[in-house]
Each structure stands twice: as structure tokens, then as C-alpha cells.
Amino acid sequence: MEGRQGAHWGELGFQGHDPATDFRGGGLLSLLVMLRLAENDRKFVESVLLEASPETHPTSWYMYAVASINFTGDLCERMRKGQLNHRFYELDKVALPASLKDYVGHPAVLAICRAHDTVFRAFHAKWVRDRPHTMEFNQFKEELYKEVYPKL
Fold first, then answer.
1. Which contacts of 53-61 are long-range, i.e. CB under 8 A and separated by 24 or more positions?
2. Which listed residue, 3, 64, 80, 107, has the most CB atoms within 10 A of its CB?
3. pLDDT for 101 beyond 60
4. Confidence label for 5 from pLDDT (cuts 50, 70 and 90)
């Protein structure tokens, strides 16, 4: 594995040479969500990295890691506002784990991962189908949310 800083992080959809700067929006939870998706469906993530790359589509691309972190942050904000309570109804009875490594399989983290997977897969499918311009990412994302969040 290459170092924590370097141009190689761009291949995974990070904005700069230090991926830590991109995690400000979603923190460690964003990393856990991305890792879980890559571990559970490597072929999907590989296809995203290819289909969303600027080399494949010079005017219609997005950064996988940045998009994933965005979705995680948005999900957390909606949770904070109580908009996803139905996904976490039974989880208030589950104790939080004592160590960080135990969070990966924690029911609350898994619920967030499932919600993220739903949003991300819908986003990617719609992006590939519609091929918006890269600069329309935020507008496109908001339009998708109107379709997807009521179904979560």
C-alpha cells in the first residue's frame, strides 16, 4: 500500500493528495461506510470507479469518495433531524460498543450502511443513465434525494 498522502488517492475519488481532508463532512463513519461497500460489493465499486471517472466521461464524472462522504454526511444530518427514525426504531435498546473496531458491525452502523448503499446505488444508476454535466452534481444529488429518501 502506498502512503497516506499522494496522487494515488485521486484514483479512488478523493479531491487531493491527503484523503483526511475529504472526511471532514462525514468523519470516520464515512470511511466505515465506504469500506463496507467495497468489501461487500467490490465489483460494484470497481464499476463506479470506471463509469464515473473523467477518463471515461470527460464532462460527466464524479468523485466516488467525495460522493460517498457527501451521502454519509447527508444521511447523518437527516438522522439528526429525525427524518430517518424508522430505520433506527429498535436500535435505542442496543448498547454502544466499547471499542472503535466493534463499531463496524454495530446495528446502527449497519443501518446507516444500508441506507447509504440504497442512496449511492440509486445515484450511480441515475447518473449513468442521465449523464449530467459534472458541474451539476449538487443539483442532481438534490433531485435524486426527492426520489430516494421517501423510499428509505
1. 54/134, 57/131, 59/133, 59/134, 60/127, 60/131, 60/132, 60/133, 60/134, 61/134
2. 64
3. no
4. confident
Tens-place pLDDT, residues 22-54: 666 677 888 889 888 998 999 999 999 999 999
Question: CA Rg, the chain, in Å?
Answer: 16
Amino acid at 53: S
What's the sign of the alpha-carbon dihedral 81, 99, 104, 18? Answer: positive
Is the pLDDT at 2 greater than 80? The verdict is no
Cα torsion angle, 18, 19, 20, 21, sign:
positive
Residue 134 parent element (H or E): none
For residue 96, give every residue at least 6 positions away whose Cβ sits within 8 Å of its Cβ, in sequence order, or none.
Answer: 106
The number of beta carbons lying within 10 Å of the beta carbon of residue 141 is 19
